[in-house]
């Protein structure tokens, strides 16, 4: 039995029941694939269902405001995916008359759609013979064939794509692509793969040579950067008794673009209370008599893929009207980074 036949047989016996699995609707497959990039299935599934409920069709998503899409996406991270999702929905509606392109090459033209996503949609929805290569596939192929070429090198990307095309089952491409990804997620997992009960064990090079834990190979390219965030959280009560704080939109490119946050002082190191007392004027101007409190004993370290955010929240109680003000009762309506969302849940305004 061939490599692809064993993968397909395993899939028939072990595949998970997932909400997008019995569909070949390109909108649903596209939505699931974008959500599952950099996201585990268990985490992504509730988001997928929420998006379908809010936007049953690509037209519904295209009509939505970007903030609605970002709010639903809140907590998934890599927010450029959400912005691209919304932009692509508009493109599908306006340039393709609400009909998804039915080929790999046309799908590649869409914003946020690369080789993997185009291969997944074209094969699952339109039965096009394009092999998918994601993290799970890299792992299965690298281990089974004993390939130590770094998967994130230009040579590795080309090599594994070519290898994936050679070993795929063309006649059953729709199921095969889902099968090899599922196999990598469950059977040939990154840690503690189930090698003893693997249908590929007899011919797996990595297993035979004791290289399972060393493959696939990945070059570490990204140097982690330390950044120091000081969020200023003003609290102001007007004559009517309404309580306000301040929120600003991150318009600059970079992390959390178009999400909202409290006014931010980014510095080269952690700040103390005295330093905050002299710097908050840069954002708010004169607030009169202000009581400043530190919300945490020490900064929270929020880790992203390429940077560590050393974050402090400073509470500014004031009797002077504040800029960028938002009613406290409305702040949950704004799409915010998970770091801000966690603070909002914990802090009692």
UniProtKB/TrEMBL annotation:
<keyword id="KW-0004">4Fe-4S</keyword>
<keyword id="KW-0378">Hydrolase</keyword>
<dbReference type="Pfam" id="PF14815">
    <property type="entry name" value="NUDIX_4"/>
</dbReference>
<feature type="domain" description="HhH-GPD">
    <location>
        <begin position="35"/>
        <end position="186"/>
    </location>
</feature>
<comment type="function">
    <text>Adenine glycosylase active on G-A mispairs. MutY also corrects error-prone DNA synthesis past GO lesions which are due to the oxidatively damaged form of guanine: 7,8-dihydro-8-oxoguanine (8-oxo-dGTP).</text>
</comment>
<protein>
    <recommendedName>
        <fullName>Adenine DNA glycosylase</fullName>
        <ecNumber>3.2.2.31</ecNumber>
    </recommendedName>
</protein>
<dbReference type="Pfam" id="PF00633">
    <property type="entry name" value="HHH"/>
</dbReference>
<dbReference type="InterPro" id="IPR044298">
    <property type="entry name" value="MIG/MutY"/>
</dbReference>
<dbReference type="InterPro" id="IPR029119">
    <property type="entry name" value="MutY_C"/>
</dbReference>
<dbReference type="InterPro" id="IPR023170">
    <property type="entry name" value="HhH_base_excis_C"/>
</dbReference>
<keyword id="KW-0479">Metal-binding</keyword>
<dbReference type="InterPro" id="IPR005760">
    <property type="entry name" value="A/G_AdeGlyc_MutY"/>
</dbReference>
<dbReference type="InterPro" id="IPR011257">
    <property type="entry name" value="DNA_glycosylase"/>
</dbReference>
<dbReference type="InterPro" id="IPR000445">
    <property type="entry name" value="HhH_motif"/>
</dbReference>
<dbReference type="Pfam" id="PF00730">
    <property type="entry name" value="HhH-GPD"/>
</dbReference>
<dbReference type="InterPro" id="IPR015797">
    <property type="entry name" value="NUDIX_hydrolase-like_dom_sf"/>
</dbReference>
<keyword id="KW-0408">Iron</keyword>
<keyword id="KW-0411">Iron-sulfur</keyword>
<keyword id="KW-0326">Glycosidase</keyword>
<keyword id="KW-0234">DNA repair</keyword>
<dbReference type="InterPro" id="IPR003265">
    <property type="entry name" value="HhH-GPD_domain"/>
</dbReference>
<keyword id="KW-0227">DNA damage</keyword>
<comment type="similarity">
    <text>Belongs to the Nth/MutY family.</text>
</comment>
<dbReference type="InterPro" id="IPR004035">
    <property type="entry name" value="Endouclease-III_FeS-bd_BS"/>
</dbReference>
């Amino acid at each position: 039995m061939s490599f692809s036949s064993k993968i397909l047989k395993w899939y028939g016996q072990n595949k998970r029941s997932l909400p997008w699995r019995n569909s070949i609707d390109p909108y649903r497959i596209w939505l699931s694939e974008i959500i599952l990039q950099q996201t585990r299935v268990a985490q992504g599934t509730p988001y997928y269902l929420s998006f379908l409920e809010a936007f049953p069709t690509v037209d519904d998503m295209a009509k939505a405001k970007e903030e609605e899409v970002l709010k639903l996406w809140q907590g998934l991270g890599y927010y450029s995916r959400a912005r691209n999702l919304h932009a692509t929905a508009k493109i599908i509606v306006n340039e393709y008359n609400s009909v998804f392109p039915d080929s790999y090459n046309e799908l590649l033209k869409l914003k946020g759609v690369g080789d993997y996503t185009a291969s997944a949609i074209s094969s699952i929805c339109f039965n096009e013979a394009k092999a998918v290569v994601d993290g799970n596939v890299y792992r299965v192929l690298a281990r089974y064939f004993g390939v130590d070429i770094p998967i994130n090198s230009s040579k590795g990307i080309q090599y594994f794509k070519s290898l994936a095309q050679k070993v795929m089952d063309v006649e059953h491409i729709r199921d095969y692509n889902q099968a090899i990804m599922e196999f990598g997620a469950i059977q040939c997992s990154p840690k503690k793969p189930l090698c003893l009960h693997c249908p590929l064990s007899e011919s797996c090079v990595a297993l035979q040579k004791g290289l399972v834990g060393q493959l696939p190979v990945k070059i570490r390219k990204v140097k982690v950067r330390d950044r120091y965030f000081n969020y200023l959280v003003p609290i102001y009560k007007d004559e009517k008794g309404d309580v306000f704080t301040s929120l600003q939109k991150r318009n600059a490119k970079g992390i959390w673009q178009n999400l909202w946050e409290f006014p931010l002082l980014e510095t080269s190191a952690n700040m103390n209370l005295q330093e905050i007392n002299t710097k908050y004027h840069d954002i708010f101007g004169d607030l009169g008599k202000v009581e400043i409190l530190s919300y945490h004993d020490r900064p929270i370290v929020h880790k992203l893929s390429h940077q560590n955010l050393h974050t402090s929240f400073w509470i500014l109680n004031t009797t002077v009207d504040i800029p960028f003000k938002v009613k406290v009762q409305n702040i949950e309506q704004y799409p915010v980074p998970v770091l801000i969302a966690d603070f909002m849940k914990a802090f009692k305004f």
